[in-house]
UniProtKB/TrEMBL annotation:
PANTHER family the UniProt entry points to: PROTEIN BLI-3
Protein name in UniProt: General stress protein FMN-binding split barrel domain-containing protein
InterPro entries given in the database record: Split_barrel_FMN-bd (IPR012349), Stress-Dev_Protein (IPR052917), YdaG_split_barrel_FMN-bd (IPR038725)
Pfam family, one: Pyrid_ox_like
Xref: Gene3D superfamilies: Electron Transport, Fmn-binding Protein, Chain A
Source organism of this protein record: Paenibacillus borealis
Highest taxon above the source species: Bacteria
Domain General stress protein FMN-binding split barrel as annotated: residue spans: 6-133
Amino acid sequence: MEQQTKDAIIKLIENSRDAIACSIDSDGFPNAKNMFKLKHEGLKTFWFSTNTSAIRTSQWMHNSKSCIYFLDAEGFHGLMLTGHMKVFLDDETKQKFWKEGDEQYYPLGPTDPDYCMLCFTAEKGNYYHGLQRHLFSVEELQEYNPHAL
């Protein structure tokens, strides 16, 4: 993959506040939800927070297969990453990501039983720009240093 394409992928992720996350329901159908991206570690690991009681949380607890999608509609850029979503219910992980203002969604604070963390681990990607697409494994881009931009 060309360096320019790698740079564009990282730029899309860095400039995206949101990602569309998809789970699989009990009938095998995909379910999509827009989520705030809290943190990411390269192209491999992405963190989100959500309600433990959310429909998709239950779906990921039963089937971790997932994808996340980043979009720049004006520039015709899209990135789909497929992998697995893990649900974290432990207080240590929840406290690590807690920030002021989260009580708006989780009024009982970082130990709120309706607050959990999601960690998406990517395996493969599909980057679209214009009429071109680039299929890749995340390992192909692991060595890429996004801080070189």
